[in-house]
Every structure is written in C-alpha cells, then in structure tokens.
Amino acid sequence: MGAERYIGVPERRARLALRQRLARQARAGTPEEVADALVALHGTDPATVYLAVGARLADPAKTVDETGRALYEDRSLVRMHGMRHTVFVFPTGLTAVVHASTGLAVAARERAALLKDMAAGGAPDAAWLKEVEESTLAALARRGQATAAELAQDEPRLREQFVYAAGKSYEGLHTVSTRLLKVLGVEGKVVRGRPLGSWTSSQFRWAVAPEHPELDAAEAQAELLGRWLAACGPATEADLKWWTGWRVTDVRRALAACGARPVTLDEGPGFVAGEDVDPVSAPDEPWAALLPGLDPTAMGWQQRDWYLAPELRPQLFDRSGNVGPTVWWNGRVIGGWAQRPDGEITWRILDEEGVGREARTAIETAAERLSGWLGTTRITPRFRTPLEKELATG
C-alpha cells in the first residue's frame, strides 16, 4: 500500500469552492441542488436557509420563490431536527438517513427527559401523554399545517402546564404543547411548516413529517458520513465527531463502513470519500462570496484554521460559537458584512493579506448581487456578533 496522500490548504480551499457551490462555475440551478451538494443547510435561523441558497444560485433572483416552493409546495426540502439536535433543512430523500443515524438516539433522550420532568412537576403519566400525542398527530393530519395554538383548539390537553425544576433558581412553567411538539420533531413525526409571516419569520406552523422507511442505524450512519465526506472532505476525525454529534466509536465504525480513505492534512490524519483521492484544481477564476450567519460552509468543520484565521473569530462569532455573516475571498474568510436599516449591504475586511483591487471589486459585486435579490427585505441575524452589530449600526 502506498503512502497516504497529502492534501494541503490550497487544495482544500479549491474543494471548498467547487463542492460548496461558491465559485461562479459551480453555482447551482435550484435550491435542491444546493441542499444536495451541502448535505444540510442550517435552519435555526430561517433567513439563513434562503441566504445560503441565494449565495450559491446561478440566478439569485429565484431564491425566495424557488426555496419556498421546495420547502412548502413540492416538499423536496424538509426543515427538521438533525445533527447535534440542531434544526437543518435536508433533501427529503435524506430524512430517513438523518432520522436513523442521528435522530433516534436524541429522540429517546428527549422523551425520557419530558416524562421525567412531567412526573416531577405533578403532570399526568406516560399513558396520558400518549393519548395527547396521538390526538395531536390526528389533528395535524386533518389540518395539514397548524401552529401549537391551533392544535390546542383541537386537543385542549396541550395547554396543560407543569412545574419545571421546582425549587431551583430557574424554576418555571412548561406547557405540554411546547415540549411534546419538540419531542415529536426529533422523533421524525412532525416537521417545521410555513412561517406565519415572511420567509425571515421565526414563527412557524407544524406539519406531519413525510413518510420514510425505517433504516438500520449503523447503515444510515455510514451513508450520511459518506455523503458528508463527498461534500466536505477531507476532514479530521474531530471534524466528523463534531458535525455529527456522534460518539467517536460511531464515527470510526461509519468511516470503515463507508470505505473512507485516509489522507494527511496539516492538522494530522484526515479522511476523504473512498473514490475522492484525485487532486482537485482551483476554480477557473477567483471568487468572492457573502455568506450568512450559521452558513453550512462557515460552520462545516470544527478545525477551521485552514479557512478562518483564529484572530478573526472574536469579531465574527458570538459567545456560543455561532458564526455571523462572513466575507470570503478564494476559499478563506477575510471579513464580515451586515445590512443596515436602510437596506445597504456593508462589509469590512479584517484580514488584508492578498486582498487587492480585484478582491474588493469582486466583494462589491457580491454585495450588489445580494442586495439585488433581497430588495426591500431586511435581515437581522438571530445570533448577532460584534462585527455584524457594529456594521449594522455604523
């Protein structure tokens, strides 16, 4: 067996540009192509989904209509809980894989925690909760999509409250509807539906999840890891453990099962998908991009020094580790951007190395491209970072 191939930073950035659909030659035609290429779009902030898609479409003017169509009409994309108990948008065909590989373990913990908290708070037992659950799902099926308040009209027991953490400093009242719908979400029984307002709204309806087969957990983990490596590889074991939220034993088993190939990175040992060992050349031309807070590329790896200098992080991340809006030039983060109240897209370069007139012109073009399809819409990231707040109010 030959020596493991070394993949350096230039090639990793070339792979990122092409696989993450950021270079102009790699831009996608539809939101489904974007989601399939990236495996998952962060969905905690609803605006992130649209902004991440718009940054990667050949025709960004289609962003809002086409993403809404995919999510709420064709249901070719689904917003649901996934890795690390985080809300993502997945291709519908991948929901069974995500559910079996990741959701089942989280769901078991969430249901057990709910039953424990209800018992401690003096609420009814598991049999009662099961009745409420079945009635709620039936009501949701009749309505098609509904808010928690609307479902409580059909199933009044959803309004029941119980005391959480009695006697502690964070004691509070929990409503059955809030906790139960969250559990049903991680169990893959319900998904997020249409927002109550515009596409930027955080208020949403619920919908019954698309039917999907029950898969073997180990096989699903191997498939998910193989897909992610094809989109984001090479990656270290630490990257894979962080992205999936799995135990290291699960990651190692899935690496072996999906036929991942070892490579050498600057950080040490890494992995690529089994057939993805050939060198990848840089895009045909330099590229710039303005990516939103929580973008799946910026958040894709735990070890980020190869595309984001450590000294930039205090300005670009919040205290919980959520990345804000970022400015990219040729595969690395060089600054951040924000939208001011009047709609202007403003940006600042924090890392000047290798950034000349060509880069500034490309960034300005990307800002105009973003402003063009946003129109009168105003965006405020859900997780605000120091630089974003400064630029937005400056």
From TrEMBL:
Alphabetic keyword roster: DNA-binding
GO molecular function: DNA binding
DNA-binding listed as a keyword: yes
InterPro entries (UniProt xref): AlkZ-like
One Pfam family of this chain: AlkZ-like
PANTHER family xrefs: LMO0824 PROTEIN, WINGED HELIX DNA-BINDING DOMAIN-CONTAINING PROTEIN
Name of the protein this chain belongs to: Winged helix DNA-binding domain-containing protein
Source species of the chain: Streptomyces olindensis
